[in-house]
Design goal:
This protein is of the alpha/beta class. It is built from 16 helices and twelve strands.
Length: about 400
């Protein structure tokens, strides 16, 4: 550690390697040198191990002295009390001793309250200032309200997230909205990738409709596939790309989407690409980029990636996209969960190339406001203010 560096404990205990942890990793790539990141994650698989490149990473395995199946036998109320006593408290102690060993000076919770309850308890036990980077919505539970009460400051990723946190009792004065940031050296306007077209067997100018997102039941892949017959009836040569894989414990939705994409009416016209490291190249050759989430996204960085690439982008008209997209100026905002509405928006962009091009140009211009450098600077300012305030108090 450099002399004078501030030890910050970054805690990530989400269900899988999704947008929240990707965004954290992008921020840590640009964190100012006065901060020394110590990263504690509850999952230790290969994607998380890569965090060692941007900080001192440690896998803090959750404590499971009594399994959930066994706890359910005691009933909901007593089972919850027992879970806190035999699983949550020991896990909080594991965080506490890790904070002590690394001389942590501030604890940063990544994602939502519920998945970081143990880390929040440890921060309070250690008397450390506590910041939540709220990248998700939070249910109204006693545990979540307790975490919010302990916070010194909160960083919601959108005004939609802030509004919900305020309804749960968090004072607005403790909130600083900081939207997600992009590495604009990666996501920028460029010629379409001919290599990706060749990989997919697209030799001509077939329209390409792309949805990037984990195969979980609220990302909207099912809505897109329900809309696909109408889209393909109007544009028979179009191809649909689904980029992303399942994460979490339940793969039923991913399996359903895979079966649906292989059905006779869509076979060969829908490409399941899984997880990819060449997202910018895929977006560069996309005619339309979709965000089709069926419940409000806290932010939804994939639509911003499409905008940064100068691609005409469609997003659901709730949650994070409302902070960024101006309808019919730099993107289209549509009512979610309705395949006919999605199909109409896609076919409009494909049938009006001049309009689509204008949206893409404006989108690329708008996205320049969302650089990862600006994002990192804004978060760093919050961390500094939190440390100063806690020192005074």
């Amino acid at each position: 550690m450099r002399s004078g560096q501030i030890n910050v404990g970054f805690c990530e205990n989400g269900a899988g390697y999704g947008g929240a942890i990707i965004s954290l990793a992008a921020f840590l790539e640009k964190i100012p040198p006065e901060f020394k990141p110590h990263i504690f994650t509850s999952i230790g698989t290969e994607p998380y191990q890569r965090l060692a490149r941007v900080g001192d990473w440690r896998h803090l395995r959750p404590v499971t002295l009594v399994g959930q199946r066994r706890l359910r036998q005691f009933g909901q109320r007593f089972g919850s009390v027992l879970d806190n006593a035999v699983n949550l408290l020991p896990y909080a102690l594991r965080h506490y001793w890790a904070f002590r060993a690394k001389r942590i000076q501030l604890v940063y919770l990544n994602n939502d309250c519920s998945c970081n309850l143990a880390a929040a308890m440890a921060a309070k036990m250690a008397g450390l200032p506590l910041v939540l980077h709220a990248r998700g919505f939070n249910a109204d539970t006693r545990g979540n309200r307790w975490v919010l009460e302990q916070l010194d400051h909160c960083i919601p990723v959108s005004h939609a997230v802030k509004a919900e946190l305020v309804t749960l009792g968090l004072p607005p004065t403790k909130c600083t909205v900081v939207p997600e940031g992009l590495d604009l050296d990666l996501f920028h306007v460029r010629p379409p990738s001919q290599a990706i077209r060749a990989e997919l067997g697209l030799a001509g100018n077939e329209p390409v409709i792309t949805l990037v997102g984990g195969l979980v039941d609220w990302k909207g892949q099912d809505v897109l596939l329900d809309a696909a017959p109408e889209i393909l009836a109007r544009f028979p040569s179009a191809r649909i790309l689904l980029v992303g894989s399942a994460y979490g414990k339940d793969n039923q939705f991913a399996e359903m989407i895979t079966r649906r994409a292989a059905a006779p009416d869509l076979h060969g016209r829908v490409h399941m690409l899984g997880s990819r490291k060449d997202i910018p190249d895929i977006l560069s050759m996309s005619s339309v980029v979709l965000h089709a989430s069926t419940k409000p996204e806290p932010f939804g960085r994939t639509f911003l990636e499409g905008m940064a690439m100068g691609r005409p982008t469609i997003a659901s008209n709730e949650g994070g996209p409302l902070d960024v997209i101006e309808h019919e100026l730099d993107g289209l905002l549509i009512e979610p969960r309705k395949p006919a509405v999605l199909a109409a928006a896609v076919t409009r962009l494909l049938s009006e190339p001049a309009f689509a091009a204008r949206l893409g140009e404006n989108a690329a211009r708008k996205a320049r406001q969302y650089s990862i450098e600006h994002h990192a600077s804004a978060i760093s300012q919050v961390l500094h203010r939190t440390l100063q305030t806690s020192a005074v108090s």
